């Protein structure tokens, strides 16, 4: 369908069974870079993944993984063995071999909320210094609108070889941690922001197996999905904006339902039922309507901040998103206050914490609500014992002063309350009788509404979740009477 019409592309690509397989450089071996690199390799491309963190490259080349992400280790191994995926630390070597370059480096927040683009700029500088011939440079890192423009300018100014020609494109990622591999192979849409037909055609070619679902799905055994994935081609600014707008909208949904949860508690309604019925409206949809202790992670908090800056710098009223952030920050206070009102004095009391990661199926604790709650508990003088199936090591590096336990029962041992802060499936399989026996006071604060109320009350826990007034409070009082 796409006829490659330029000499450099022929040199850097290989035609097989009607598809053109290219040499692709992925710069950055973080969550996004590694999933992108391994995913593209799985669809047949030859991928060189570059990271200047030598330790990370060593880990990857030894067959291990630098972080936990379900399914990713197997994908990386399989494609390394098939020689479609390699890891190196020298960017210039990758650029020499690859016509297509994905930039997947971090864009953490600066103190003022803006995204720090220094890693993106550094990559661009090194590419300018060594690239010759035609290259397609694709920004996949989440960046503020108009970064593509700046990259184009950068290449025009700094290109050291007169034969270096380049197209810049934006191709935002929509990968959730914990299900990034699944999201890569089953995207709702693929968005590309381009300014030339050549760039659009190359990107369509790269994603052809995903768009047409013509690859052997490594995630599901009998994957029956066949409908074509929407391929959204737009200008670069719009593509960049689509990413920030998507994350901000999802964060808004979460803060919205958290606000409703507070009202439910205040007036005696049940947010679980409210969210369920509201979400049945197809125009609204049920996802991201789970109330709780707030959103965290490396994306929503940072992207919201950056988007607010972008909006305000452009003279637009982004106060809506400021409220979304404010509501989210308040989630921590509200949970800790709930605990305090139950325990009266928190100082010197043992509190169990289940869950440290910012969400289940990841070991990532960046901007984790669980860690924010623990910090507040420590400030109140509580003795915290915590457990998480994957994130203990990373949490320990952040908060070394609490006790990390071998399992959820040990975290509950001797506790006056347990706070459930990350909805790991493992917690749903706990023997609740055993949990109740080891606790000093059987009080569970469910910060993610993960447990069934019926089951908690059947096991005679004092159970408080998020957003239930009325009948749930009554059950709590009944449990206290027993
Ligand atoms: C998010 C987006 O969902 C991805 O599409 C995007 O690609 C990614 O950011 C990114 O920008 O790289 P992620 O941060 O991995 O993905 O995780 P989410 O599943 O979106 O959850 C974010 C936070 O919201 C978590 O703390 C989660 O517990 C919380 N959340 C989520 C709720 O509190 N309620 C919900 O209903 C859903």
Would you mind describing this structure in some detail?
By secondary structure, this protein is α/β, with parallel strands linked by helices. The protein contains 20 helices and 15 strands. Helix 19 links the parallel strand 14 and strand 15. It is globular, with a radius of gyration of 25 Å. The termini are far apart. The model is unreliable at 1-16 (pLDDT under 50). Uridine-5'-diphosphate-glucuronic acid binds at residues 142, 173-177, 247, 250, 254, 288-290, 292, 295-297, 299-300, 303, 358-359.
- By secondary-structure content and strand pairing, the structural class works out as alpha/beta
Percent of residues in helices comes to 40-55%
Hetero groups in this structure are: uridine-5'-diphosphate-glucuronic acid
What kind of sheet is the major sheet?
Answer: 7 strands, mixed
Rg, nearest Å? 25 Å
The total beta strand count reads 15
Low-confidence stretches: 1-16
Mean pLDDT: 92
Distance between the termini: 72 Å
- Number of helical runs? 20
Secondary structure layout:
Layout: H1 7-11, E1 13-16, E2 19-27, H2 31-42, E3 46-50, H3 54-61, H4 72-81, E4 85-88, H5 91-97, E5 100-103, H6 118-130, E6 134-139, H7 147-158, E7 165-170, H8 180-185, E8 190-193, H9 197-211, E9 231-234, H10 236-267, H11 271-279, H12 300-313, H13 319-343, E10 350-354, H14 369-379, E11 383-387, H15 392-398, E12 403-404, H16 408-412, E13 417-420, H17 425-428, H18 432-438, E14 443-446, H19 453-458, E15 462-464, H20 471-481
Parallel strand pairs: 2-3, 2-5, 3-4, 5-6, 6-7, 8-9, 10-11, 10-13, 11-12, 13-14, 14-15
Antiparallel strand pairs: 1-2
Helix pairs in contact: 2-4, 5-6, 6-7, 10-12, 10-13, 12-13, 13-14
The protein binds uridine-5'-diphosphate-glucuronic acid (UGA).
């Amino acid at each position: 369908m796409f006829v490659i019409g330029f000499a450099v592309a022929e040199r850097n690509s290989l035609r097989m069974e009607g598809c053109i397989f290219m040499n692709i450089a992925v710069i950055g071996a973080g969550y996004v870079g590694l999933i992108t690199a391994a995913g593209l390799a799985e669809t047949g491309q030859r991928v060189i993944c570059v990271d200047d963190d030598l330790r990370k490259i060593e880990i990857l080349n030894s067959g291990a993984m630098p972080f936990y992400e379900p399914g990713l280790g197997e994908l990386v191994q399989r494609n390394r063995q098939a020689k479609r995926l390699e890891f190196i630390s020298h960017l210039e070597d990758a650029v020499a071999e690859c016509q297509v370059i994905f930039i997947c480096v971090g864009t953490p927040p600066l103190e003022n909320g803006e995204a720090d683009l220094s890693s993106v700029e550094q990559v661009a500088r090194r590419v300018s210094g060594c690239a010759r011939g035609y290259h397609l440079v694709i920004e996949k890192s989440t960046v503020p609108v108009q970064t593509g423009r700046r990259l184009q300018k950068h290449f025009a100014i700094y290109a050291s070889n007169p034969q270096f020609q380049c197209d810049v494109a934006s191709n935002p990622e929509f990968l959730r941690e914990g299900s990034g591999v699944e999201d890569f192979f089953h995207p709702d849409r693929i968005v590309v922001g381009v300014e030339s037909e050549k760039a659009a055609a190359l990107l369509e070619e790269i994603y052809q197996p995903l768009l047409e679902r013509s690859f052997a799905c490594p995630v599901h055994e009998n994957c029956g999905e066949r409908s074509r994935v929407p391929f959204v081609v737009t200008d670069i600014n719009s593509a960049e904006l689509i990413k920030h707008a998507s994350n901000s909208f999802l964060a808004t949904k979460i803060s919205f339902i958290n606000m409703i949860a507070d009202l439910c508690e205040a007036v005696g309604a049940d947010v679980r039922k409210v969210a369920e019925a509201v979400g049945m409206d197809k125009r609204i949809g049920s996802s991201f309507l789970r109330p709780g202790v707030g959103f965290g992670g490396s994306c929503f908090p940072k992207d919201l901040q950056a988007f607010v800056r972008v909006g305000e710098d452009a003279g637009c009223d982004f106060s809506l998103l400021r409220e979304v952030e404010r509501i989210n920050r308040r989630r921590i206070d509200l949970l800790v206050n709930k605990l305090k009102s139950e325990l009266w004095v928190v100082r010197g009391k043992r509190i169990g914490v289940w869950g440290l990661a910012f969400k289940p199926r990841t070991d990532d604790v960046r901007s984790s609500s669980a860690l924010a709650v623990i910090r507040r508990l420590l400030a109140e003088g509580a003795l915290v014992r915590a457990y998480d199936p994957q994130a203990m090591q990373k949490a320990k590096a952040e908060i070394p002063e609490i006790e990390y336990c071998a399992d959820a029962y040990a975290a509950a041992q001797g506790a006056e309350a347990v706070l459930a802060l990350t909805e790991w499936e493992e917690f749903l399989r706990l023997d609740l009788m055993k949990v109740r026996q080891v606790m000093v006071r059987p009080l569970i604060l469910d910060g993610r509404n993960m447990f069934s109320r019926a089951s908690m009350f059947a096991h005679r826990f004092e159970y408080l979740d998020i957003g239930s007034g009325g009948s749930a409070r009554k059950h709590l009082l009944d449990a206290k009477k027993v």
